[in-house]
Amino acid sequence: MYTQAMDTMGKEPADGQKPVRSADEMRLQERFDARIDAGDFIEAKDWMPEHYRKTLLRQISQHAHSEIVGMLPEGNWITRAPTLKRKAILLAKVQDEGGHGLYLYAAAETLGSSRDQMLDALHTGKAKYSSIFNYPTLTWADIGTIGWLVDGAAIMNQVPICRCSYAPYARAMIRICREESFHQRQGYGSLLTMMQHGTPEQKAMVQDAVDRWWWPSIMMFGPPDDQSPNSAQSMRWGIKRVSNDELRQKFVDAAVEQAKVLGVTLPDPELKWNDERQAHDFGAIDWSEFWRVIGGDGPCNRERLGARVKAWEDGAWVREAALAHAGKHQTMKEAA
Ligand code: BYC
């Protein structure tokens, strides 16, 4: 069985012992902490603690894998988009996701891991990718709903990462977030067209897609703060700027208003405005489902990973040909 739960990147040694550090290293650590406290950005060439480097590598590579695996459920609908306009938009969106993956792999490479190592971790089930892409896209309305809810959740989570303390990640995120807002709007626009001009069947299809994607979308922000082992340290280092629960709450509050305009019902009978908190209360999330999905046992985990591994194996001849071509040119240059 494929699992996403074996990633060891970014973890302290198993025996919990801290390595002995020299006086020089302690000075470097103090300087690093002072820079983080002052809100400075850290560049690839700067000294950084090993745990900071590994935490970033874990998060950025997981993020890159999510973009690449995220192409699969949407790519599945390119040939079946209802109009040429929608097909062109979806093609552009899926291509953007591939680009996001490449920016992020490049940012992760600055931390000392090769692309081959990261892809190997994905293909062997050691590295995680976002839980959300282990759910199936059953109808055309799923594509609009992914744009609205999944890209909407991604923007909510990723805008604060534009201020991440690690500069190469922050720079990649600025470009990604610009494109994500187009993705969110095209999804919402597509659903709005179906809800305002569609047949009763099309409207029901939108509601059904929202019913299936709502809970997995709010799980995307990760476990509750008190069950999030990485949050405290990542917040201290300025890798994460806003907590999982705070982002989830902001997303729910925004989505409630958007759902009203769309004319769909969010599938949570406990969702209601709380005047005291000035935020919406919402029902209990089924965290056992979340842990099961990230543990490798979601509806499409095997299919998604199988598709990535197959694409990698089928593309071997392209990589070999590109290397042979580059080698030939190098030899010709040297001979000239
Ligand atoms: N799915 O301590 P926590 C997109 C893991 S791309 C799977 O809170 P952290 C898009 C977590 O890794 C969306 N695993 O962790 C693409 C940790 O396990 P490990 C991707 C999850 O890192 C194409 C454990 O649970 N976005 O939207 O502080 C088309 C405990 O969690 C998830 C990013 O990657 C999850 N949802 O916080 C359309 C954004 N949540 O590694 C759209 C960057 C948690 O300790 N990443 N886990 O074994 C982040 O902001 C953070 O990594 C997270 C998790 C908020 C996701």
Automatic annotation (TrEMBL):
InterPro entries attached to this UniProt entry: Aromatic_CoA_ox/epox, Ferritin-like, Ferritin-like_SF, PaaA, PaaA_PaaC
Domain of life of the source: Bacteria
Keyword set includes Nucleotidyltransferase: no
SUPFAM superfamilies, alphabetized: Ferritin-like
Keyword Oxidoreductase in record: yes
GO molecular function: phenylacetyl-CoA 1,2-epoxidase activity
UniProt feature coiled coil, ranges: none
First-tier enzyme category under EC: oxidoreductase
Enzyme Commission number(s): 1.14.13.149
UniProt keyword list: Oxidoreductase
Region (Disordered): 1-22
NCBIfam families: PA_CoA_Oxy1
Name of this chain's protein: 1,2-phenylacetyl-CoA epoxidase subunit A
Species for this entry: Variovorax dokdonensis
Gene name of the record: paaA
